[in-house]
Amino acid sequence: MNRTGKVYEKAISAGGAELTRILRISSLRPDPSKIREAVKVLDADGVVMYPTESSYALGVNALEETAIKKIFKAKQRSLGKYVPVIVSDVRMWKRYAYFNKSAETLIREFMPGPLTLAMTKKHCVPDLLNPFAIAARIPGHPVALALARAAEYPITSTSVNISGAPPVYSPKRVPRALRSAIDLILDAGRLRRRNPSTIVDFTKGDRPIITRVGAIPASAVFEALAQGRKEK
Question: Residues 118-130: pLDDT tens digits?
Fold first, then answer.
């Protein structure tokens, strides 16, 4: 905690400009005190930049519309493009989504990890996040997972970039226009470039649809689903 006792307030430089607070953090053993400071920022509807399996992400409390609007504004993103989230475990996830057996099969097989599942949402999820669904995953990166566990609510996990631009793999590469919107950076150093999560949509009918092939091949997803049906 800083001397003011309010970690969510941006530091002010001698010239009067706002400075984003940066906390160096280990990817392997995240410091719990730094995770708690990040959660205080999220609790105050602030914006936290944190590492994931693929790139850095912008995180806010996904249940607060005031916070979600900050993400759209910072990324210059149209309101029609919906925002994925991370959750700590299945118990948390089930508070916000209607599950089915196929989704549970994929969770057992691939999570924590780079697989996002879109499922019909419950009413407590803001429409601004998505009017019909909640697209979530249990993250494989230790910092992201620790953050979700400590927060005890879903956290947005959209890439750090201006909409349409490449994602950011290092805190040193954050665009100036975007950096001004970030209250706290959990700096785990430069990340290896990896594919984003594969997205499977369970909201379009009985059969799941892969809407983005990423780190997990489509063949592996379909194989896991087929195996799950055999085990019923």
Answer: 999 999 999 999 9
